[in-house]
Amino acid sequence: MNSIQEIYKKVERRERISELEAIQLYEEADLAVLQKLANQIRKDKHQDKTFYNRNIHFEPTNKCVYACKFCSFARKAKATEEEGAWDYGIDELKVQLDKYPVGALTEVHITGGVHPDRGVEFGEELVAFIKKVRPEIHVKAFTAVEVTWMAKVSKLSVRETLTRLKKAGLDSLPGGGAEIFDSSIRRKIAGGKAPADRWLEVHGEAHRVGLSSNATMLYGHIEEYSHRVDHMSRLRQLQDETQGFNSFIPLRYRNENNSMSNLKEVSLEEDMRNFAIARIFLDNIPHLKAYWVMLGVEEAFKALDYGVDDMDGTVDDSTKIYSMAGSIENPALSRDYLTKRIAESGYRAVERNSVYEEI
Ligand code: V47
Ligand code: SF4
């Protein structure tokens, strides 16, 4: 086993670290050293740029065939409106889009519960509608879990499902549904939903049909450091093969209104340690995102000093997944606020499109 000093030196030489070395960083590394190393890597890759975009979310339903224990958002598939369930379609999507003049948004992110009856046709309809009325908007839609379910309902292969969605106008896949890949932990917190291999297969196929994607990791619940490293290692392996991931998004478990509310949330220090190690370990994923909606605004700005180069976007109060789990109630940040705070943090704000081209 290497000493911790030797691992630091390896990172300084920009050599790839092993899974065991990453676990050792989690267990032994000094946070100030991790911060310095992650920051150097971030500077090599992106200099002083901090990216953001102008985006909204659309959550077509919160009805879900699954019952992940960490989820505060989902309702049973047969739940009624009185029980807090919703089913939205084209009409609601149109109302949402009509709020924005042409040019005000560059991305719509669509994700929601896994609706029992909605197959690929529903997905195609939503995506095609956006492309009809706002062809310039990038549509980042449907997690690997949703894609897997659509394929099942419509009796198609994953590849056929992705190809049809792409033809309808889908541009990329969001990173959700990854949770934690280790099967024993995944089974405990995410029940029967798409296992790790399937999640990775969907993203691999997406990359091969020409759709890029993101990857998340839900941490700070019942997993151990070895599970986080295993998760990132499987992503690193797929990325070596496809180069299709744009960004990695660690998501701290939020503990309100769900079946694991007995668990305490991890500390800010733990969040920063996790961002820094992710930046060091995932040498082949270009961007590291602090999703302020989940993490909190102050925490996300702090993360810029621990390897993060992307703040996600303006969001404009269009998502409920995190407010229902105890995070910011009405998440919205203006472009001016993002630009100003990024500058105050010592970085240069750069508006990006969804594949990180500068606007
Ligand atoms: O997969 C659900 C997470 C994810 C909780 O790709 C929770 O750009 C913490 O993936 N505590 C969906 N996390 C959101 C997502 C996402 C968000 C922003 C940007 C992108 C992107 C992707 O939310 C789920 C799950 O891991 N989640 N409940 C909770 N209580
Ligand atoms: Fe359903 Fe997704 Fe919530 Fe799991 S995390 S219960 S799949 S909405």
Notes on the protein architecture:
By secondary structure, the chain is of the alpha/beta class. It has a single domain, classed as TIM Barrel (Alpha-Beta Barrel). Helices cover 43% and strands 14% of the residues. It is built from 14 helices and 12 strands. The strands form 4 sheets. It has a 4-stranded parallel sheet. Strands 11-1-12 form a 3-stranded parallel sheet, covered by helices on one side. Helix 5 links the parallel strand 5 and strand 6. Helix 5 runs parallel beside helix 7 and helix 7 crosses helix 9. The protein is globular and about 55 Å long. The termini are far apart. The structure holds ligand V47 and iron/sulfur cluster (SF4).
Secondary-structure map:
Blueprint lengths: L3 H9 L6 H10 L2 H16 L2 E5 L1 E4 L4 E2 L10 E2 L13 H9 L8 E4 L9 H14 L4 E4 L2 H10 L4 H11 L3 E2 L9 H8 L5 H13 L3 E8 L5 H18 L2 E8 L15 H14 L5 E2 L3 H4 L1 H7 L6 E4 L21 H10 L3 E4 L8
Parallel strand pairs: 1-11, 1-12, 2-5, 3-4, 5-6, 7-8, 8-9, 9-10
The chain binds ligand V47 and iron/sulfur cluster (SF4).
